Amino acid sequence: MSNFDIHWRKIPRTYGLILFGLFTLYFLLMRTVGLGHEYWLRSLNIVWLLLGVFGAIRAYKKNSTASVFDEFFDYFKIAMRTSLIGIGLFAIFLALYLDLLDPAFMADLQEYESFGGLISPVSVSFLIFFEGMASAFVCSYLAIQLLKTRTVEKPIQTKKEYEQALRSSK
Predict the structure, then answer these.
(1) Which of 2, 19, 89, 140 matches a 20 to 30 Å C-alpha distance to 125?
(2) Which of 51, 57, 28 is nearest to 144 (CA)?
């Protein structure tokens, strides 16, 4: 069994649940302090998403023997699965919250958003899910690029070393 297969379920599940917890706590905190109607604050969810994706990739990288260049797609699959679990669970939570726990907030969304009142808790959840997964795609690629090891083995110090390296590359 490969290293990827061993960690394929464990790491995304753990970090996906952490990501779900961060999204949920942030949402409930904003609702509690009265900032739930400030929709631009949801753009700060990118911070939680980056933390979750970075954590999952680092955990896999720590347990893996291959380099980022050998396992780019494995890192990407780990990051996207982590995001799928976290964002998927949050979308389900949001649908239940808007339908059962706070229908007044749902009424406010219908009144103030540009959907013409034709929005339901399920459609809000689908929008949040697709928006989150699009962000996760970008964040996953960004995290992999930021976490990859540097390829320069020995920096060139002098002009003479530079000329020798240039001649040897021809």
Answers:
(1) 140
(2) 57
Q: How many domains does the chain have?
A: 1
The tokens for 159 are 């002009």
131 falls in which pLDDT band (50, 70, 90)? very high
At which residue do the structure tokens 């002098």 appear?
158
Q: Are 56 and 42 in contact (CB under 8 A)?
A: no
**Residue carrying the six token digits 């060139």:** 156
How many angstroms separate the CA atoms of 43 and 158, rounded? Answer: 46
- Token pair, residue 122, equals 């399920």
> Does residue 168 surpass a pLDDT of 60?
yes
Q: How far apart, in whole angstroms, are the C-alpha atoms of residue 39 and residue 42?
A: 6
CA distance 55 to 59: 6
Query: Which domain does 73 fall in, by range?
Result: 3-168
Answer yes or no: is pLDDT of 80 > 90: yes
Cβ neighbours, 10 Å, residue 64: 20
**Which tokens in the block code for residue 161?**
């070393």
Burial of 110 (0-12, 13-18, 19+ CB in 10 A): middle
Provide the token pair at 74.
């494995």
Read off φ and ψ for residue 112, nearest 5 degrees.
Answer: -100, -20
Whether the model clears a pTM of 0.85, i.e. scores above it, the answer is no
Residue type, 108: D
